[in-house]
Amino acid sequence: MKSFYLSIFLIGVIATGNVSFAQTTEPPPRTQPALAYMDHLGLAILFGGQSEGKLLNDTWIWKEGWQKISPALSPEARKGHAMAYDSRTKLVYLFGGKGENGLLQDTWVFNGLSWQKKQTKGPSARHLHCLAFDSKKGKMVLFGGANGGGNSLSDTWTFNGSRWANVTSPIPARAGHAMAYDPERKRIVLFGGFKKEGQTKTIYKDTWELDSRKWVQSRAEAPAARFMHAMVYDPAARTIVMFGGKGDEYLGDTWQFVRGAWRMISPNGPTRAGSPALFYDYASNVLLLYGGQSKDRQPLSDLWRFEGRWIKEKSN
């Protein structure tokens, strides 16, 4: 049964007259989507990605099931974009990605009902970058990605809700990495990704932590090199969790970053890359995994929950 908060949310949607919602169903299979969990509403917001060669600009809610909404205004279709939730302003921010006509450098905000484009200058156009909210600083942090020539980037930016600012970033360029904020240790953790310069591609297995304004490389023994994987903070375990990606092969392993050290907690899972959406569902107190790309390069739409091992959820 849908929760009280989802009912209130949908009543609000109807009342605005600007947003419509469809009968509960499932999102189409997709790779390179973006997802953010809105703590105050208890909702996960999924936007965009690519499905069978087509870029998407659909917005979906997860709350004990999927619900598609159709705001009056939405960002254009894209993949490889980044989203994160700002617990201070209770808003979701989106930046960049690859659209129908090339790379994007736009900033959008979602309030739980509608999208709004922010009129602000910031990072250059890119995709396969990462965005995370640093609650200690009260700012969004963006790092890396790939430019229009396919080369990897190494710049770090912060966003305070109105302006982007470039900050010092002594860290190797990369794209297809993953980042998450650890409120216990009050720092952003970054793992892996790849660097491309011309025809040369290097896949990383390094760990970096952003403490205040400085990136510091961790000496922790690392999992296998990978890119297009997923990371999220698990409040129940009070640690960051990393899943999957692609290295020498497609991966399905699950790791925790505990007090500055990596620990494998499951060697086998639903093998995939394509930046699957990994999130913690506060309503059910469980980690959930959605979508991505299979070993045969097909977009996915399956949903899995983690209970010491990955268990496939039944369809709606």
Describe this structure in words.
Helix content is 4%, strand content 49%. The chain starts with a helix and ends with a strand. With 316 residues, the chain is mainly beta. The strands form seven sheets. It has a five-stranded antiparallel beta sheet with strand order 1-5-4-3-2, covered by helices on one side. The protein has a four-stranded antiparallel beta sheet with strand order 6-7-8-9, with no helix packed on it. It has one helix and 27 strands.
In short:
The chain is mostly beta strands.
* Average residue-wise pLDDT: 91
| Helix and strand element order | HEEEEEEEEEEEEEEEEEEEEEEEEEEE
Q: What structural class is derived from the secondary structure elements?
A: mainly beta
* N/C terminus separation: 12 Å
Number of helices: 1
Question: Level of helix content?
Answer: under 10%
Largest sheet: 5 strands, antiparallel
Unreliable segments of 5+ consecutive residues? 1-18
Strand elements, count: 27
Overall outline: globular
Beta percentage is: over 45%
Q: Give the spatial strand order of the biggest sheet.
A: 1-5-4-3-2
Radius of gyration: 18 Å
